[in-house]
Amino acid sequence: PAPVLPTGIVLANNLNVRSGPGTEFERLGAAPQGAVLPVAGQLGNCTWLRVTAPNNLEGWVSGEAAFITLDTPCAAIPEVQP
């Protein structure tokens, strides 16, 4: 079976999903409030999270506590490069 990925629950109204870990990257779409996003990795101590959003949209979201809450400690999520 495939490994179970950590998840994050979106707290913001619409959380921007970007092509890379930073606000300078293109906005690909948004994840709605309440969406449960599988987290494949993180960068910068969970400053940015690599996720799969609804409609199989893959990208990066801000890991700020005001925007998303994680079900796993950040230290347990592998660091990935963009």
Kindly report the spatial arrangement of strands forming the biggest sheet. Answer: 6-5-4-1-7
Radius of gyration: 11 Å
What is the end-to-end distance? 26 Å
Strand content: over 45%
Helix/strand order: EEEEEEE
Question: How do the strands and helices of this protein lay out in sequence?
Answer:
Elements: E1 7-10, E2 14-18, E3 27-32, E4 36-43, E5 48-53, E6 57-62, E7 68-70
Antiparallel strand pairs: 1-4, 1-7, 2-3, 4-5, 5-6
Give a quick precis of the structure.
By secondary structure, this protein is mainly beta. 0% of the residues lie in helices and 46% in strands.
Describe it for me?
It is built from no helices and 7 strands. It is globular, with a radius of gyration of 11 Å. By secondary structure, it is an all-beta fold. Strands 6-5-4-1-7 form a 5-stranded antiparallel β-sheet, with no helix packed on it. A two-stranded antiparallel sheet has the order 2-3. A hairpin with a 4-residue loop joins strand 4 (36-43) and strand 5 (48-53). It has strands at residues 7-10, 14-18, 27-32, 36-43, 48-53, 57-62, 68-70. The model has no long low-confidence stretch (mean pLDDT 95). Helix content is 0%, strand content 46%.
